[in-house]
Amino acid sequence: MEWTREMRYRHYGEMTDAEEKDLLEKVNYSIWRQQFHIQPPYGLLNDPNGFAYYQGKYQLFYQWFPFGPVHGMKHWYHVESEDLIYWKDKGLGMAPEYDHESHGIFSGTGIVKDELLYLFYTANKRDEDWNRESAQSLAIMDRNGRIKKKEIPIIPKQPEGYTANFRDPKVWQDKDSDTFYMIVGAERMNHTGCALLYKSEDLLNWHFEGELKTDFEQFGYMWECPDIFQVEGKDVLLFSPQGLEPDGDSYHNVHNSGCFIGYFDKEKHYFQSNFFQELDAGFDFYAPQTTQAPDGRQILIGWMGLPDTSYPTDKDMWANCLTIPRELYIENNKIYQSPVKEMIAKRGSLTEWRGSLNSEETILEDFSDAVYELICDMSVEEGIAGLKLRTGKEEETLFYLDTKRQKIVLDRTKSGAPIAVDYGTVRQTTCTDNKISLRIFVDTSSVEIFVNDGEFVFTARIFPKEESKGIKLFAEDTTASFDIKKWEYITQP
So what's the pLDDT on residue 127? Predict the structure, then answer.
């Protein structure tokens, strides 16, 4: 299907009943619909937006193009949850309505003040020559769930010296004062990425403070979805730099996400850190956003997808989902990501297996399933050993520890319908241990693998046949021991 510009820039209000019925029918026939991940009813989902705890519930929005699995006129779709696990669809959250947002509502943030939820977003407009115009805008949600936008942008355009790639505001309150700060992703005129800082006393009137200085003057051509927060007393700058070249095992996806851990000097507009940590070692992770839970945990949700990438569900007229929520903590100056503790509530019946393999493979007959959580403690002598997930006649998703090369590896070469093969089908990272713990979440068309309590995370979409539900263990030219627990998943409350 050829998506013309006219088709991509239609408003949700233009959708006919017949169009919606046709979309829903195509989606309902899709064999890859997820069972415990946030996904669009139809059309395309991308960045999570407006993530905040408000009126006793987690409020979350995501970028949504309703008419199909392509990027076009972006709206915000709204979901909410009491427990981060079961999410209720609230439908359309915001749609373009003013001239300055005529070509879409881009990503943004949510923050609570005076019992109202302030929603900041980037308004996108194109002129007659298709030049971009970006403005930072504000909507306010009241206790009854009504959302009303400000008719005039709070920041009408980018400062001098920066292109119109000026988007994705994140707002937070300084812990030592009543001052609010905003960070916005930007591109300098020399096509290098950065972030810009603003300050406000009332969330309505904003003053440009300047560019956020870092120790990385040239690091990609655009910084998307920046986010500053604290974990265990340390400042974290999270963002998605576009245009990084592969470096060893890192940065092999079309675009990547990561963070600096260090110190944010708000007076000097300087974030001090000398190390960028890629947040995910897998294939499909981008544009993460965080919020603070009432108990102080910093919770992250990311887009389980990538820009400029096609997925097999495109033919079913929907694309992408969000990751499961993850708690962030720091060990040895490194961000760890752990599934939120609430995920335990989704566990159903338990199946267990423990034993050793000596240069052999075994099928776990009782473990066959397409949706589950798996915990595996694995130790390997010198060689390769691991798991094969969603196995079928010709399909398997491999995850293994290679102690000779000191690598942990995710291989989706035979995972089913291919995805972004130009960027490779194998991801790996260095691991010097010969014993690791795994916590693996398998949904209909995804895997999320947490290694050593979240020291490493591998996120990937996979698209196997419906019948590919097996699990195998293997050891190549070595001896390995396994202790495995598998829980069926309760997908409905």
Answer: 94
